[in-house]
């Protein structure tokens, strides 16, 4: 037998499951990662006491300025992200809420993910070396390049690795530096043919770049709109699609002549 509740009591009873659901959701782990601007590193210099780029088999040049690769720092693959973390991330410009599967391979253990990121970094370094040496018309049988960047995984530093190799071996091709003495940052994958690919997280990477003194940011052309949405003041975007185009843009910027692409 059912009895009729007064309206206030009925509302209170109906509200209880909703409150319980919200309370559970607030503390339950969600399939998201929260990311923020990460570290940057000058590929022309040292990282944690070791040169990022070491070259043998060909004369190298002393460079000025900086070429800074950029990263994002995301919550770990085994970190529990709650509804509160997600809501907080949505309302902050220095945070981004991303589906966990877009940051880490789905279903993999922490060790498997670390191994996957390390392998991606190794493949990126090999491709960056081949692209740079091909651009300079040098043989990888005579010139040996070693790239070392501690505690960083993934392929997104490829473009900056290639530019660093080019700058150390040839500069702007006429005795000057690719950087023109500036602090230049960027992101982008690269393949052995020198094609630049998109990476994601560019709005956070531009913040990291500006924080660490960059005034120019090289970006895969396809990601211009994402970068422009929250572009830090004082940072100039230069979109690129190939290593050749990136070098040409930096030379034009350095010499103040020619066309420098913009988003």
Automatic annotation (TrEMBL):
Pfam family, one: Lon_C
The keyword Hydrolase appears for this protein: yes
Domain Lon proteolytic: 153-241
GO molecular function, one term: peptidase activity
Signal peptide as annotated in the record: 1-28
GO BP: any one term: proteolysis
Highest taxon of source: Bacteria
EC number(s) reported in the record: 3.4.21.-
Record's keyword terms, sorted: Hydrolase, Protease, Signal
Cross-referenced Gene3D superfamilies: 3.30.230.10
Name of the protein described by the UniProt record: S16 family serine protease
Originating species: Streptomyces yaanensis
Upper taxonomic lineage: Bacteria, Bacillati, Actinomycetota, Actinomycetes, Kitasatosporales
């Amino acid at each position: 037998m059912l009895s009729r509740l007064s309206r206030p009591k009925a509302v209170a009873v109906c509200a209880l499951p909703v409150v319980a659901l919200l309370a559970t959701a607030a503390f339950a782990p969600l399939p998201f990662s929260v990311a923020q601007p990460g570290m940057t590193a000058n590929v022309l210099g040292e990282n944690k006491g070791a040169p990022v780029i070491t070259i043998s088999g060909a004369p190298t040049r002393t460079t000025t300025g900086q070429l800074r690769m950029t990263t994002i720092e995301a919550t770990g693959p085994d970190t529990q992200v709650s509804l509160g973390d997600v809501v907080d991330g949505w309302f902050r410009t220095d945070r981004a809420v991303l589906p966990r599967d877009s940051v880490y391979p789905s279903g993999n253990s922490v060790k498997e993910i670390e191994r996957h990121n390390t392998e991606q970094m190794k493949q990126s370094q090999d491709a960056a070396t081949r692209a740079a040496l091909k651009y300079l018309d040098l043989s990888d049988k005579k010139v040996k390049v070693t790239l070392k960047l501690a505690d960083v995984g993934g392929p997104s530093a490829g473009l900056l690795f290639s530019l660093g190799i080019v700058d150390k071996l040839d500069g702007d091709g006429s005795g000057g530096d690719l950087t023109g003495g500036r602090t230049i940052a960027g992101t982008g994958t690269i393949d052995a043919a020198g094609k630049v690919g998109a990476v994601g997280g560019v709005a956070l990477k531009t913040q990291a770049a500006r924080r660490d003194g960059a005034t120019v940011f090289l970006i895969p052309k396809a990601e211009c709109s994402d970068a422009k949405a929250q572009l830090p003041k004082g940072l100039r975007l230069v979109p690129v699609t190939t290593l050749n185009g990136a070098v040409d843009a930096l030379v034009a910027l350095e010499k103040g002549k020619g066309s420098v692409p913009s988003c």
